[in-house]
Write a structure and sequence with these properties.
- The complex is a heterodimer of chains A (about 300) and B (about 800).
- Chain A is mostly helical and about 300 residues long.
- Helix content of chain A is about 75%, strand content about 0%.
- In chain A, helix 4 packs across helix 15.
- The longest helix of chain A is centred in the middle third of the chain and has 32 residues.
- Chain B has a six-stranded antiparallel β-sheet with strand order 12-11-16-15-14-13. Chain B has a five-stranded antiparallel β-sheet with strand order 2-1-5-4-3.
- The chains are: A mainly alpha (about 300), B alpha+beta (about 800).
- At the A-B interface, helix 1, helix 2, helix 5, helix 6 and helix 7 of A face helix 14, helix 17, helix 18, helix 19 and helix 20 of B.
Chain lengths: ~300, ~800
Amino acid sequence: MSTSTLDVPKETRFSRLKDSFRRFRARKWQEQLAGLMGLFFLILVGISCLIPFLWMASTSLMETREVVKFPPSLLPEVPLWENYTNAMTAFPFPRFFLNTIIMAVGVIVGRVVIASMAGYAFARIDFPARNKIFFLFLATMMIPPAITLIPSFVIIASLDWVDTYYALIIPWLNYVWGIFLLRQFLSTLPVSLEDAARIDGAGELAIFWRIFFPLAKPAVAVVIIFSFVDVWKAFMWPLIVTRSMEMRTIELGVAMFSGAYSTNFPYQMAAATAVAVPIIVIYLLAQKYFMEGINLTGAQKM
Amino acid sequence: MSIATKRILAAAMPVVLAAVAFVVGDAIVVHKYLGAVQEELVQSTRSLRGTVLNVRADMQRRIKAAANALSSSPTLGPEAVRSALAKHDLGSARGWVISTYDGAVIAESGETLGGQLGTRSDILFDVSREIGGGSDLAVDAAGVYIKAYGAVGGNGSSVEGASATDAATDLFLGVVVPAEPVIAAAASDLLSAGVGYAFYAPGESRFGNTGFTDASLQRESRFFDQITAAKATGFQIVRVGNKQQLVAATPIFDFEQWQVHGFAMASRDKAETMAAVRGSRITFWVIGVVAVGIALLGMSRILQLVREAPPRVFQSSEQRRWIRSQMVLLGALVIVPTALGLGWAMVRSNADTAMVMSRPINAATTVGQDLVERLSDSDDESLVPTLSLMQQVTGAHYTFVRDDGSRVSTLREERAEFDVGHMDVWSHTDGVRSGIIRINYVIHRVSAIPAPELGGELYVTVEDTPYQNSLASDNAKMIAIIIVLTLMVTVAVWIVSSVHRERTFRLAIAGFLFITPALVILLWWAIGPLLFSVFLTFHRWSIINPAKPFVGFANYVRMFNDRLWWQSLVNTGYYALHIPVAMVVSLTVAMAMNRDMRGITVFRTIYYLPTVNSLVVTALMWKLIFNPEFGLLNYLLSLVGLPGLAWLSHPTTAMPSIMLVTIWFAIGGQMILFLAGLKSIPKTYYEVADIDGTPGLAKFWYITLPLLRPTLLFVLITSTIGSFQVFTQVYMLTQGGPAGSTDVAMYRLYTEAWYNLRMGYGATQALTLSVIIFIFTAFQFRFFSREIKYS
């Protein structure tokens, strides 16, 4: 696993570095050159990955006249921190953040409860037609979001849920990927766990809640992280089911803000930075779970 | 819980459900009929309002004629006025006045509304001056009346008691006629059918013929206040004495549609209404009781057998099969009669309501006939406003079709061009053909009224949508009951027949309870929408229009002829071409990273950053970078001496720009997958190749690529699926432009569904797109199953 380096003690890491250096010395010059070129390539790609972010952050502190200059200026003459406060107050950004948080909490709680219950049943309870039903769940992963978009909206509209938190949360509770993840995770646990509890006379719910749910923490963490990112990045669904300013989520808020202030690039970039920072921080803190989630299922989140 | 209790509970389930099904079914039958009656009452009151309008307009026409006659009269004395009025059937006039345009009264007689008639204090008088005549309703303590004005015209006739200057000015004739007898004569059909009117004078006096006592109306004053404020028809169940009445009321306003003078009301005794469906309901209940009774008998017999035998007896497979067959039989005994009963009630109540629903068009037809008579000497120019006013007042649509095929209609656009030849005639009375017709797929009740004097036919159409909707939803409820019942009975049969296996039973209950939330959500938001979208493709479906007609393959035909759609598919395919580029880059990155070096995880963190970043933010930062005037990219080009590009604002470069953004953020995710794939290739393969002296490129070609094939295919296919549904980048960066060069499939169907409000057509496009996506997904799954064989 790629995360294994984290667990290696310091001395070993150092000796490995020395090792790799020795190996580098031992190679032929062509190979040395290839290695260096590879490193150069990696740095080049890394820079091109970072530049837009830095550019955004830098622009967010400029005045408009600095932005529209050619050649472009790289850093602001004087950092204008009030761009942030101005942008955040020009549109109800606190409300957008609140909406996203409410949506995220609802979606995460719902998904964790539903997915862990279903995952537990599929992994540990041998009920009739279990595999057939599980296959049905997996098969629905093939349904592209494009096709359910319009009918889901019609359902939302007929329930009179347009512009409500229900519309933002409830359709998102369908999370087969999470069920699959939890099922895979819970299947790996030994049978002796529940047998002991059963002998003690525990019910199915108690076994799930007291034994398996705590053990499933790593998988649940992956579900939480990916759900949070899903919600944070949600764009098309909130776009069609919300109408009033009060119900817009953060992504929509930024999109609308950039439309309203289409010529004020510092404001746009300040708002964009404010939205980008939380998700980047969460990514940096929870990187392990991101990599686990990707490697566990091989599914690429678009 | 003992096994016996469980058995009794499980076996009782179908019976209880059947009983519930019958109660709900009965409620639906009643609800459906009451709904139809409501529709009928509402339309009747609107038609009465239409009649009042007709009466008023007719009065105006006659007074205009009388005023015209006065124009040619040599003297303008009371005698001349009286004879002119008598000649035009206005002998019942309560009073009249002749005044100048300035409002100075020249001659008057009888009741003139306290001197208001023909003076400037009357708004209608002012308006009539502008357009040469007018009419309105008015109510005072003495009763309801129609007042109307007609221009006497500029004539040179002498006027008794008028000065020479007055005579030179044009004059006005104003007349007050009691309204009640006129309305009663014109609306005799409606009135005899129980529709009534009530007019209110300032103060408490009330005129009308509705059967309500003042006290009962007083109690409902809020209801009338509401419909007065909304100026819309209302419906309510009102308690009058100790009887419940279904009441519909439509406000009748003055000519400006400003002040409400009174209400057209239609009421029906609720008990009488219910009596009309009593026959249907009794039959329905008899079927229900018999069904449940038979089921109870069968159940008691089975329970007896079960009770007599010890539980262990049911362990042989033969006996299990026996008890299962008994339960299936019992289930059938419940389901079949219940389904038959509900089906019968459905058909029967459809017929009941269909009869009720034919009445509104009859009421509208009567109004239409009056309209034709009134129009017979009206000129062509006034036809359009007259018809549209009538449409506002009655809610029905009017289309006048001339013999040469040209038409004047209150229906708009292509709906006005409905094919009169496709009318399905149900009845033919007094030359009026009545029936149904589809106008742009929506079912309408229609009456064709011949108007030979006008040289054509007047088509009165009432949209059937509310009725069709309630019919559809109630029928859907009935079918849902039957499906739920079948499901529950199946479950009950299964429970009873496997009840002896305590462990299986317990596991099944636990398992299904645990997956129920997920299953409900899955059916609600994945499988349900999938099936619903197929249903949508055969319908025209707009969120704002209540009519959602079945249109057959019209959406598909439209799609095949829709050049924008095909262009968007081509654009989507073009966009997908970024995938190989992204894969080459990310594979190169992954291979460069696949080495034992410290700090390599820092690179991984950086590369994945664009993938985790929100797409809106990504789009915003790139929009700035793409800026042709001061963007970073054009600056970089200028550094190497190249001219700048227009990027997003030119049709040739817009799509490649979006592809560039996608490549930028897609590399991270792909790289991680490739890296995992590369790490899983055993090192020994390369070591063996090294010993053989294989060159690097050959190692890549013969070891890395074949072993990485699963990851490569996975990335290729998931990326393709994602690319076919690209939306956010396009929405944020180009909105489909410039010149439609970035109008991708998802953006196209978003535009159709949410801007053009064509949900049905949008669903058709989504289905087509999904079939294309499905082909790729099928590839993916086929590839996965092949991989399983390898390992």
